[in-house]
Amino acid sequence: MTNPTNMPKISIQRIEHDINAIARFGFNEDDRGVYRQGFSENDMAARQWLRDQFEALGVPHRMDGAGNVIGRFGPAHDDGEIPAVVIASHLDSVPAGGIFDGVLGVVAGLEVIRTMKDAGIEPSYPIEVIATSEEEGRFGGMLGAQAMTGHLTREWLENAADEHGLALKDAMATAGLDYLQALHAYRRPESLHAFLELHVEQGPVLDVEKTTIGIVEGISGVFKWMVKLKGKADHAGTAPMHLRSDALMGMVDFAHEIPRIIDEEGTDKSRITIGHVALKPGFPHTVPGEADFTIVGRDLDEDVMKKLADACRKVLESISRRHGLKFDYEQMSWLAPAYCNDEIIAMVERNTKSLGYSYKIMPSGAGHDVQFFTGLTRTGLIFVPSVKGISHAPDEWTHWSDIERGAQLLCNCALELACGAQQIAPQTLPSDAC
């Protein structure tokens, strides 16, 4: 692995050790998956593990009211007024998840601090490594990032619950947290110098194209609909095909139209997915009288999202008339795209070139903590390849060599940001100090 001679090198051995150490919290021997959902016992144990690492390094650390673990490495005289370069991701997992999702970004941030301490580097801007809480949406949001960026309300905190009916406030209480304190986790924009996140791609693009680094230009916006097509349940043996009002046929016809909708109204970044379907009455010998299903649309341009949504509505209206169906839908959510900072993108690209890595400027179709910080500070998101694009599954894998390259890039970018440059620009760092 090449690296400019004046930049300290990260240790892939320490990163591998740490990722494997965290994997033990919630690892299931039967399916080889990780079960570390937000505010579970395993999740809180992983957070304590991180605090122990900060303690061993002599790095001041704390857990805020939302459960975010924060370690701050910086000038000894810092009273908290100097804005920080934040390196963040999450430690919680989906059920039966993999070992890299989120964890990589936290461990790589920890390694940045270790590398700087080993090299005797004292940053001008403090480095904060943050393990955000409840990113995977067990309770319906990205709690830690939302708390730090002012996107929480008391009403939401009091009403949020997981799929089993467990209230967020009760889960937090079991974890030793007062849910109302999450409202005190907000970070003022002036407390942040920049935000960086390193993450596995969770998709196949980099792996298929044999590209080392993905430099993310932004997080795709997402809209979610709950659609209801209502026809007439009928006997599967006696109802003639041409006289049916088959709700399933209406849904299938719409599914076939999705590629055309994207071709005409979308971009190469557009996605439309039918992810959940429920048929009623759901009996083998009955024509489906009702089809309830979700539509989730994504694009990096909100105007394109609106065109996609409008096209979906018009196509569903046309198909409903053809099949004699009643069409109704409810928009469950609309999240606008979030764009990474142009200066940070340029800085990451320059550092990627200096390391000699192949790279691709690309969008992220999945949500990440970074998206909530785009309105608060300058942000950047770096991807490393996921083998076969697999994520949120036990066989999620990223090669250690790719992790090493991504972590080194993150370290070099963090050094540039933290070592005193008021504007992001090429600079030369001595090997032993900023």
From TrEMBL:
Cofactor annotation remark: Binds 2 Zn(2+) ions per subunit.
Protein name (record): Zn-dependent hydrolase
Entry binding sites for Zn(2+) 1: H90, D101, H199
PANTHER family assigned to the protein according to its UniProt record, in alphabetical order: ALLANTOATE AMIDOHYDROLASE (PTHR32494:SF5), ALLANTOATE DEIMINASE-RELATED (PTHR32494)
Residue sites binding Zn(2+) 2 per the record: D101, E136, H392
Keyword Zinc: yes
Keywords attached to this entry: Hydrolase, Metal-binding, Zinc
CC cofactor: Zn(2+)
InterPro entries from the UniProt entry: Amidase_Cbmase, Bact_exopeptidase_dim_dom, Peptidase_M20
Pfam families recorded: Peptidase_M20 (PF01546)
Gene Ontology molecular-function annotations: hydrolase activity, acting on carbon-nitrogen (but not peptide) bonds, in linear amidines; metal ion binding
Family recorded in the similarity comment: Belongs to the peptidase M20 family.
Top-level taxon of origin: Bacteria
